[in-house]
Structure formats: structure tokens, C-alpha cells
Amino acid sequence: MFEIVNPMDIEKCSFEIITELLGGRTFPPEQEPIIKRVIHTTADFDYADSLVFSPQAVERGLEGLKKGCHIVTDTSMAMSGINKTALGRLGGQIHCFIADPDVAEEAKSRNITRSMVSMEKAARLEKPCIFAIGNSPTALMELYHLIQFQKVNPVLVIGVPVGFVNVVESKEQIMTAPVPYIVARGRKGGSSVAAAICNALLYQLSAR
Amino acid sequence: MFEIVNPMDIEKCSFEIITELLGGRTFPPEQEPIIKRVIHTTADFDYADSLVFSPQAVERGLEGLKKGCHIVTDTSMAMSGINKTALGRLGGQIHCFIADPDVAEEAKSRNITRSMVSMEKAARLEKPCIFAIGNSPTALMELYHLIQFQKVNPVLVIGVPVGFVNVVESKEQIMTAPVPYIVARGRKGGSSVAAAICNALLYQLSAR
Fold first, then answer.
1. Global pTM?
2. A with B: how many residue pairs have Cβ under 8 Å apart?
3. Do B43 and A163 touch (CB under 8 A)?
4. Of B26, B113, B157, B183, which sees the most CB atoms within 10 A?
5. Is the pLDDT assigned to residue B65 strictly greater than 90?
6. 3-class DSSP state for residue B181?
7. Which residues pair with A184 in a beta bridge?
8. In what order do the strands lie in the sheet with A70-73?
9. Does the predicted interface ipTM exceed a cut of 0.85?
């Protein structure tokens, strides 16, 4: 084994290995740190093909973060994985309403998912927000409807839910909305992918 | 899209699709719920081949949890993904020391990773523990040394770090230790995989 125990050295070495394993493959320069960080997080090179960026998506995300926009996630796991120190340095905060008692109660009474209600609650935040959806296709579907009805205008939608029911469809749908997006096409994704994309944006702007 | 918004229905439907996509493939019955939950969490069928179980690993994990053993993780993300209600019903608690100020301080002074120091700290817990390592190969390597020096005797090691530096090696190493293990061979894994394996064990024993 290598004798590397400094986390920043390990990360640097990992990115060099990823670059090597990608062969001569190139990406648009603004997308490259995001694609590589997702591969770093998952060890899954499928993301080199499945990540789709709307025009200017990265620029919009970076501009928003620079101005102190907030980040909304659909799971506490994604919230936990996002670097809150880096976000805080830029003036941003993170929100996840999935575990709120009022969200659970309303979801039960309306017979919809907590994820859907948590998006409605997030749409009422007064700050510009990046929405990072790593788990729930119903959250992404609800977000699509909220955008269509002009109830929310996200700075950027990171649409990377994972799974087998409505996941592929929810991602294809959000790509038709008038909003900047970064989407992992297909079934794969997850809270760690959502967090990795947020962190890849943050690390271009802020110390850790 | 399907009109399913009940989370338990979505999960049931997902597992049926996974079973279908696995074709006629069968697994040892005690391993099957774990393999399928990891695929459910990642949408990645590689885990049908890469998950390796030592003899009796699942039984040891279930017995431990029944008796109220605790769970130690290497990341707050994995901690966040494990169902603490289900664990608590069995009498267990969850621990993650990675963000503790004393751990950071000691890691800096000894020039080793916080993950390594967090394992040393966990080894001093007096309760029997399952160790679920989803991120850091240095945590898994340190755990191996602690086991070799009889400083800790885990109920079960879930060894699923992800990445490119020392990850494969750390997993091969832990499989030579005298301890029950569930390992995702190769580079893939992650905090969400570690949490999924813990939850797959918990859901066989406890309501959510």
C-alpha cells in the first residue's frame, strides 16, 4: 500500500488516477471538476457519460453561491455530506425539511410523500436557492410542478435521485423545465452524488 | 409515470424490479436482503458480484443487534443514513467521532488521518460494536491493526470504503482479520452503501 495519510494528498492522488483512467477523454472545463468529483465519490465511471449539464448551469451555480445563495436538499444524508464551512464562508446556509414534524403530519394528511411537502416548504424560503435532490424522484417531480406554476425559481437544480420507480422519468421531466440543471441521467445517483456536485462547486470558490 | 406516492409501496415495487432485473439469479437467503438493499440504494448491479460475506457474518450482525450492540461509522453521512429509530428500538446507539475536536487535534499532532484517530477512540467504547466503514481506507486499515493487537473485537466489520488510493488493498486486508465481515470488493462503496447494509440488518429485526 501507499504510505499516504494526509487527506489532501490522498485526494490529489485520487484525482490523478481518475484522470489517467479516463484516458485522453476531455470535458468542457467548467464541467470537469464536477464530473471528476462525482467519480471520486462513487468510483463509478458511468458518470462520465450520464451527467448532463444545461447551458450555463455551472456558471449559474457558481454565481449564485458567490452571492450567498442557500442550498436545499431532500435528505439529511445529502445535507450531512455538503461542506457547510465552505458554504458558510460564502454566506450560504443549508436546509433540509424532510424530518420536520409539520412536514410528516401534512404528508400523512394529504397522502403524499414527505419529500413532496418538503419541497413545497423549501419553495417558501425567501432566499435564492440551489436545489440538490439526491434521493427522491417525488421531490424532483414536485419541484418541476412548483417551477411550472412559478412558485419557485431555483438558481440551479441538481437532479440526481437514485432508484427504480419514477427516477428516470423524473430526471427527463426536470430537463424540460426552464431552469439551469445538472442531472445524472438514468437510474444512478444518490445523496453522496448530490453532495459531491455541491462540494465541487463550493471548492472552486471557497477554502474548505 | 407510475402514480405511486406511498414510500413503502415505492420501495416494494423497487425491490420487485430489482428481483426481475437479477433474472433467475439466487443468493444465500441471509445475504439476499442485504445485496438487494445495496442495489436499491445505488442502482448498481455490480454489488451482486462484489459483496463478499465471511461465514456467519450476517448471523453475527443480527445476533449483535438483537442484544443491543452499537454501531460505529467513519463518516457523519453514514451515521445520518442509518435508521436510528430502528437501532434504538433494539437498544443500540450510533457513534461517529470524525468531527470531534479532540480527534482533529490528535490527528494533526501525530500527522495521521482523523479517520484513524476516530477508530482508536471507538475501540475504547465498552459496548460491543458493529463497525461500518463507508469512506476511509485509513479507518479500515487502522481497524485491522486494532483487531490484530486485540484492542478491539468488532461484532461485525462492514468494509465498504470507496475510492482510488488504498481502498482495494484495505478491503483485501480486512478480509484476512479474524473477524466477521461484509466487504464490497474493488473500488466501489460509500457511506450510503455502509448505511444500506446496516439498515438491511436492522429491518430484519425492528420496525422502522
1. 0.95
2. 115
3. yes
4. B157
5. yes
6. strand
7. A51
8. A51-53, A181-184, A156-159, A129-133, A70-73, A94-95
9. yes
